[in-house]
Amino acid sequence: MTTTGMTVEIVLVVVAAVLLLVALVALRRLQSLRRGGVDVALRRALPVDAVTAADDQRGWHSGIARYRGDQFRWYRVSGLRSGPNVVLDRFDVEIVDRRAPRPTELHAPGATVLRCRTAEGTFELAMGADVVTGFSSWLEATPPGRSTGYRQAS
Fold this sequence. Notes:
Number of strands: 8
Distance between the termini: 72 Å
Number of helices: 2
Strand content: 25-35%
Structural class: alpha+beta
Mean pLDDT: 83
Largest sheet: 8 strands, mixed
């Protein structure tokens, strides 16, 4: 076999591997959605006074979130990790602020950005109106005998 023929074969194998990886990521997303996940974009929050228009798109990651007991588990769509990338505990989450997406942010129409403080740091969650309602309800709800886990900064 010639060197050119081997090069073509190697390129075809690499392209096939990339296509397989993309198909696996898409399949994982579909499976996550079928299991009751909700679409949530997440990023570690930047300091409020340091945000510029160029920073609006930095750090946002698309993902699927699921509620499991007292945990809000967020899975990054583009990752291959099997476990959650971020876990927010109901009793540790505090909604600090809510706002509409800035014009330079590319979130879905009608989305809301929640700024949430936890022991692990401050996160921004961009989600649709229905998901915001569900998230707020989840924070407010507690099993009998427990104090409320819902806190919203004033």
